[in-house]
Design a protein that fits this description.
Layout: H1 5-8, E1 14-15, H2 21-30, H3 35-46, H4 61-70, E2 71-72, E3 77-83, E4 90-95, E5 101-109, E6 112-116, E7 120-122, E8 137-140, H5 143-157, E9 165-168, H6 178-189, E10 201-205, H7 209-217, E11 223-227, H8 233-239, H9 241-246, H10 249-258, E12 267-273, H11 281-290, E13 296-302, H12 316-328, E14 332-335, H13 349-355
Parallel strand pairs: 1-2, 6-9, 9-10, 10-11, 11-12, 12-13, 13-14
Antiparallel strand pairs: 3-4, 4-5, 5-6, 7-8
Bound molecules: S-adenosyl-L-homocysteine and iron/sulfur cluster.
S-adenosyl-L-homocysteine is lined by residues 129-130, 169, 173, 204-206, 227, 229, 270, 272, 301, 303-304, 306, 346-347.
Length: 363
């Protein structure tokens, strides 16, 4: 792209959020403005959430007028919000420019407010317990569409409820869209951006081994979560077939062992408990062996059912027995409360209901 001023006269207005920082610098240089101006604009957009150039009071009047001529700041569009009165979980449905939709979920928990972000419309993979997996991949999200979920949720939550943690655990496989995810993390961590510490950001993967190494080499040391969900290749092939046939358990656990963990950090292992499939005590004992020597925390997630799902949620006693075996072996193992049960909170459920016409726009 070229931003020479002459060409801009006939070019449509550029959406500033779609530009990388370097592209924004180029745009400003082409106007003859100093580089710090672009940082000031970024600071207004991300840190202060301003969308009108007129409100950017540390820019000169002529610069504000010129910017309004050549550029726009798009705003996230929240087309649906669902609230679970029982546990305070809120699900936001974002409508993207091309009409596609993705979900983000705000999860309050004691002194934290976590936002679960989507990275793709649908998913590259087809895990059989996951509703998003049944959709196929529509497209990857762009970096600004990922960051817009944070800006939209921040505006919705308001200044009294700051979002403290970000998890890339919504729709899609973040590591299949790694470039956009890393660009989004740049903006989420930058001092002129959202200013999050990388330790408050977690990226979850179904196990894309080469990209796990790339994430480990990324300059922002975010947390890694791995969706394990099985202790044998047979069962993992059944529930996460596409990814497990490519990177079976041995390769995945080797990548986990090689992951460069900063001091005092751990890998999070997610384990969705599916009744009669991966929840017997023998699986818990195998899990203990598989994870031996890896600094980790295990999150047990009782399956969150969706209409037509081929699995069932295990009984509470089965979940407790599974957890007890892990605790006895001195692992940190938590049972994730099923948040937002009343609001179709399994990943992909709100989008699906919306698409099937169960939820009218703006209701
Ligand atoms: N693609 C990434 C991140 C999105 S899925 C990954 O697989 O890690 C986020 C988490 O939701 C994963 O741990 C997945 O196992 C879990 N999950 C998906 N569908 C679920 C369901 N119906 N019930 C419980 N957990 C589910
Ligand atoms: Fe995709 Fe993750 Fe769902 Fe698997 S569990 S289909 S990788 S979103």
């Amino acid at each position: 792209m070229c931003y020479k001023s002459k060409q801009l006269l006939i070019m449509p207005q550029v959406a500033l959020k779609t530009l990388s920082v370097t592209q924004l610098d180029d745009l400003f240089t082409a106007q003859g403005w100093p580089r710090y101006r672009s940082r000031q604009v970024l600071d207004w957009i991300y840190r202060r959430g301003v969308t009108r150039f007129d409100d950017m009071t540390n820019l000169g009047r002529s610069e504000r007028i010129r910017l309004a001529d050549i550029a726009v700041i798009t705003e996230p569009v929240v087309s649906e919000i669902q609230h679970d009165a029982e546990d305070g979980t809120e699900k936001l449905l974002f409508r993207l420019e091309d009409g596609e939709t993705v979900e983000s979920v705000l999860i309050p928990d004691e002194d934290r407010l976590t936002l679960c972000l989507s990275t793709q419309v649908g998913c590259t993979l087809d895990c059989t317990f996951c509703l998003t997996g049944t959709m196929g991949l529509k497209r990857n999200l762009k970096a600004h569409e990922i960051v817009d979920q944070v800006l939209g949720a921040r505006a919705h939550a308001g200044p009294e409820r700051p979002i403290t943690n970000l998890v890339f655990m919504g729709m899609g496989e973040p590591l299949a869209n790694l470039a956009a995810v890393c660009e989004a993390i740049e903006r989420l961590t930058a001092p002129w951006g959202l200013g999050y510490s990388p330790r408050r950001i977690t990226v979850s993967t179904s196990g894309l081994v080469p990209q796990m190494a790339q994430l480990g080499a990324f300059r922002h040391p975010v947390n890694l979560a791995v969706s394990l969900n099985a202790t044998t290749d047979d069962v993992r092939d059944r529930v996460m077939g596409t990814i497990n046939r490519k990177y079976p358990l041995t390769a995945l656990l080797e990548a986990c062992r090689a992951y460069p963990l900063p001091p005092r950090r751990r890998i999070f292992f997610e384990y969705v408990l599916l009744a009669g499939v991966n929840d017997p005590p023998a699986d818990a004992r195998r899990l203990v062996k598989l994870l031996h020597g890896i600094r980790c925390k295990i999150n047990l997630i009782p399956f969150n059912p969706w209409p037509g799902a081929p699995f069932e949620r295990p009984a509470d006693a089965t979940v407790a027995a599974f957890q007890a075996i892990l605790l006895d072996a001195h692992f940190s193992a938590f049972v994730r409360k099923s948040k937002g049960r009343q609001i179709l909170a399994a990943c992909g459920q709100l989008r699906s209901a919306y698409q099937q016409g169960f939820i009218p726009l703006g209701s």
